[in-house]
């Protein structure tokens, strides 16, 4: 009889303690908030890390600053007006990308080939504006080959942008790369900017491009 009474007395206390434990764990705001923060933090950190103004890209010790330019624009002279609009867009806030535009940034009196090779080597990525003028200009093809020789495995550094060119006329050297079609100028500019952002983010995480 005493053993049965002991069992009856111990059951409510054990059940009550377990219920209290479960209540405290479920109603604790700190535990729930910490769980939520642990779930949401990866996506938040990824979004922040992809933003070009974050410290991993623009900080003084970032690999971005190992090169003189962020982007080298390869284009035909007949497309200069469009290219100037693109450069103005890329150099604007908040990214403020450093662009090399040959007619603007080449040093007077220096050799054209030397200026081009230096710009290609000292840029993180290259935008190729492939237009009918680009295809008919041997100098543009030379620029393209220099850029491809600098990064033979492509790895996102060469960004082809196709405008008013049929697929059959697209350079064979670029056919293994995805290209941006400039159907609408504003959306195409935005896509180019986002691609450069990804290149810069990769630069910040990995060693500087070029294998140095």
Describe this structure in words.
The protein is α/β, with parallel strands linked by helices and 212 residues long. It has a domain at 69-204: Rossmann fold (3-Layer(aba) Sandwich), CATH 3.40.50.10140. 54% of the residues lie in helices and 11% in strands. A five-stranded parallel β-sheet has the order 2-1-3-4-5, sandwiched between helices. It starts with a helix and ends in a 7-residue tail after the last helix. One of its GO terms (molecular function) is Toll-like receptor 2 binding. Residues 67-196 form the TIR domain. InterPro entries: TIR_dom, Tol-interleuk_rcpt_adapt_Tirap, Toll_tir_struct_dom_sf.
The CATH topology of the domain at 69-204:
Rossmann fold
State the distance separating the first and last CA atoms: 86 Å
Strand order in the largest sheet? 2-1-3-4-5
* Run of helices and strands: HHHEHEHHEHHEEH
C-alpha-based Rg, rounded? 29 Å
- The CATH homologous superfamily of the domain at 69-204 is named Toll/interleukin-1 receptor homology (TIR) domain
- Please state roughly what percent of the residues sit in beta strands, choosing from under 5%, 5-15%, 15-25%, 25-35%, 35-45% or over 45%: 5-15%
* Overall body shape: elongated
Class of the domain at 69-204 in CATH? Alpha Beta
Helix percentage: 40-55%
Computed structural class? alpha/beta
Secondary structure tally: strands: 5
Mean pLDDT: 75
Low-confidence stretches: 11-19, 24-55, 205-212
Q: How would you describe the oligomerization state of the chains in this entry?
A: single chain
Number of helices: 9
Biggest sheet details: 5 strands, parallel
Q: In CATH terms, what is the architecture of the domain at 69-204? A: 3-Layer(aba) Sandwich
